[in-house]
Structure prediction request, 206 residues.
Amino acid sequence: MVMPGSRATTWSTTTTWPPRSACASRATRGPDFDPAAAPSVAAADWPEERLRKAHRNYAMAYVRTAIPAAIQVFGPVEAVHLVGLAGRLVGMQFDGEVAACAGLGGRSAKDFADWMAAVARAQGDAVAGAEAGGAPGEGRFAQSSWALMRGVPDLHAAAFACWNALWEGALAAHDRRLELVPVRRLDLGDGAFEWRIRPRRPVVVP
Prediction:
């Protein structure tokens, strides 16, 4: 069966999934783990910097695949809710660790803009100059590329909201009194992504 809007896949009527060769009986017991027999990489071929880059690329590929897949499977509204929730939690969890790795310790809006710049450079993006303006106590950050989604065809606009939730979570851990406001979006035709980091405005209940 092919759902409307999905890519058709042809299956043989005799095809089984998973293949029988990949299935195991419930009574089958796997061998104990032997560290000496486990695959390993030569330290000379894989220095620490190369390993870190491989870990980064794997993590980025995971998110690059997960966001469009979630939008396709759940629809944009539910995907933003589910992936956005996960992204906020990850951002909250790792804000402090990333700041320490980048040598950042301040808690101001400008400090968080520096945090975003450090992350952008680490993931291979170009940090751009933010447009002039902004009130005292605000920070601005802009990046002119999106390495995470480079080359992804027909990317839905909801992908940005899924991704942006990661930065919202990090900012909540950085200072819950600040908010992140996108003012330009590269995916919508602007020359860069740009955010304002400003004091959170009170919610007015009518």
Observations:
- Confidence is low (pLDDT under 50) at residues 1-11.
- The chain has one domain: 52-199.
- The first helix runs from residue 48 to 74.
- Residues 43 and 51 are 10 Å apart (CA to CA).
